[in-house]
Amino acid sequence: MTTWTGDELDRIAEADELEMAPLRRDGTLRPPVPIWVVRDGDDLFVRSFRGTRGGWWRTAVATHAGHVRSGGVDKDVTFAEVPDPETNDRLDTAYRSKYGRFGGAYVDPMVAARATTLRLLPR
Questions:
Q1: What is the mean pLDDT of each successive set of 10 residues along the chain, which is 123 residues long?
Q2: Fewer beta carbons within 10 angstroms: which end of the chain, N or C?
Q3: Where are the chain's structural domains?
């Protein structure tokens, strides 16, 4: 496993959306879907707007692998679940800060979807 470069972190964190394509069990990528991404320190995180019903999320949790594209960065990634409340508290704030301009109808479901938080680890 590698780490994100400072440039990659900045470019992805500054972008509004990230294209997420989790790897299916048969080794093929799902078609990419646009999702929101937030940064916390040197890490990038995503959540499923649809909660645990989100198709991309279910695939990502099943295989823990996929591909992302955002801000000109194109990377294979590993998905790691984030159970700790302290990180999720910071991510709630990050989602509200970055995406608050879209209103509560969009931000509130993302904050409520804490159980779907995944850390993106570059491969």
A1: 91 97 97 97 96 95 98 97 93 97 93 96 96
A2: N
A3: 6-122
CA distances to 9, 28, 37, 63, 80 from 45, in Å: 11, 23, 6, 17, 9
- Measured CA to CA in angstroms, residue 85 lies from 35, 110, 114, 117 at distances of 22, 15, 9, 11
Name residue 115's beta-bridge partners: none
Sheet holding 18-22, edge to edge: 33-35, 18-22, 65-70, 73-81, 118-122, 43-46, 37-40
Residue 118 contacts residue 45 (beta carbons within 8 Å): yes
Q: Specify whether the CB–CB gap between 80 and 64 falls below 8 A.
A: yes
Question: 6-122: which CATH architecture?
Answer: Roll (2.30)
Task: Single out the residue of 53, 36, 20 nearest to residue 100, CA to CA.
Answer: 36
